[in-house]
Amino acid sequence: MAKPLLRLILAVLFVVAPHLHRPSEALRDPEIVVRPSNAMVLPLVHTSANASMHQSHLDYRRHLQRVSSHTEIARMRLFDDLLTNGYYTTRLYIGTPPQEFALIVDSGSTVTYVPCSTCEQCGNHQDPRFQPDESGTYQPVKCNIDCTCDRDKEQCIYERQYAEMSSSSGVLGDDIISFGNESVLKPQHAVFGCENTETGDLFSQHADGIMGLGRGQLSIMDQLVDKGVISDSFSLCYGGMDIGGGAMVLGGITPPADMVFSRSDPGRSPYYNIELKEIHVAGKPLQLNPRVFDGKHGTVLDSGTTYAYLPELAFVAFKEAIMKKLHSLKQIRGPDPNYNDICFSGGGSDVSQISKTFPDVDMVFGNEQKLSLTPENYLFRHSKVQGAYCLGVFQNGKDPTTLLGGIIVRNTFVTYDRENQTIGFWKTNCSQLWERLHLPMAPSPAPSPSYDEIPSLGPAPAFPPSTLQNSILPGEFRVGLITFDMFLSIKYPDLVPHVAELAKLIADELEISENQVHLMNFTSEGNGSFVKWGIYPTRSAGFISNTYASSIIFRLTEHRVRLPDNYGSYNLIEWKVEPAVKRAWLQQHIFAVVIGIVVTVFLCLLASIAMWHLWRRKQQILGTYRPVDAAVPEQELQLQPL
């Protein structure tokens, strides 16, 4: 039976700020989520009644934290890139057996939702829609006094409206949610949204849905904390410029010794805020009143926002301070004529060297602790001019709120310690996070099957390459063939002319040779197409190395194969690994044997030709030889007439 949901009703007014520069997410109210692309909508009033209610809930939660200790965490990988895709995603698995989804990680959203199989208006996303009927543990959240009910008063529903006129609505369901093979945290029951309608950007985006990490009863964090399975904390680590990806931890960890902290006051606003007091450029503080960063909602940290937005006075001071340090560079137009980007050429293409040209920036918190930012934390690459960079910090219209998006925390491990009302920052290489933090590992997977069996996985949680190589592909195992079944949401007649092109695209995405990818089966399946592919060793090798095979399988299971939109979305149904066939000595050395035979025949032919020429020469010599006493025919002497 699903747990009843408490639905907080807030008295909220909204104001629309002037045009902003491509934020993928903006601030939201805990109940009405706002996610504009061209405008930011913020709650104008956060009532004191709601603040006290929320504070009471926090006090109760901290009491639970004190009476029980938590050792479990969910370790999860992040994918995509904030500046390229507009978001980061993680993999979440819902149902029994698990169905995989790529969800946008959003600290400003309070609900997790995925497209439902009953959706009448949903776009083509990365993965197939959730099938409630195929999950043995799914239960609808029945209508009750604590939720909004459907017309038939049978099931709880949800609705989210967005400022750019997109929306998401559907029913609430309860099912088992799991976090992948790297997670120590066991699968848990949770309430989530099953979409029946989506419009606007939600309809067209590649990601399946949103994973809400904000403060709210439907937030995945609040649900896990209320169950007592994790402590009230989560962490995000975004990859650096040109790298993308990253990591996420649900639950508390021991903070690194050199992590810097800022207080985060949940009573100040419903968003994750910090106490920013000063900004320094090249060691010099901007001449600003500290209260400039405390207007309206204060300084808000939002993982779903792409760039950073400062109040007008702060932005002008920051821009001027940066430009004074770049007098040797040429200012150029931005990549998009629709925006007045501030860009500079001559910065060099090597990201590791741009700090020699662009100044460092420091953010000083209310407790005098300082977060140092490198140029990759406030710049983005110019997409049309090599070696050029643009400011990723913009004016927040006339809104006095300071909004810090993902660009500010690239290659920074950010801990949202909700229990202690602090947010911590630790500069690090996010691609090496697990090794540097020494976080607990999930139990080792079950031993791999014997060589007589074919290893196989359906759409289950993916393995990292190292796990695959050690457990699925032991050292003595030689891979002779990798097959995988793919279902594409494109009709059979439309796909037939492009199969060869699709094979090349898959080869490019897997970083293998095109002649290694072979079409094995191709059939029509409803409104889609079922395709079986085979990946063979190169012609010069008899097997695929385990490292290479692990990399291929990881790319497949982690949906790293990105296809153009005209192929629709795809689903990896199953993959298999077949061992290399042991060949006889002659089969293994057939090429050398053939070459040897050809060379031998050629040499014999040359020898025969040489012998024949010698014999002919000898015959000619014998034919012209005459004994001394041999008779010579007389020849008539002819005289020329005078």
What structural keywords apply?
642 residues; alpha+beta; 8-stranded mixed beta sheet; globular
Task: Please give a structural write-up.
With 642 residues, the chain is α+β, with helices and mostly antiparallel strands. It has 12 helices and 34 strands. Strands 4, 5, 6, 7, 8, 9, 10 and 11 form an 8-stranded mixed β-sheet that branches. A 6-stranded antiparallel β-sheet has the order 3-13-12-28-29-14, with no helix packed on it. Helix 7 crosses helix 10 (546-557). The longest helix is centred in the last third of the chain and has 35 residues, at 590-624. The radius of gyration is 34 Å and the shape is globular. Residues 1-57, 60-70 and 444-475 have low confidence and may be disordered. The active site is at residues 106, 302. Residues 88-426 form the Peptidase A1 domain. Residues 1-26 form the signal peptide. One of its GO terms (molecular function) is aspartic-type endopeptidase activity.
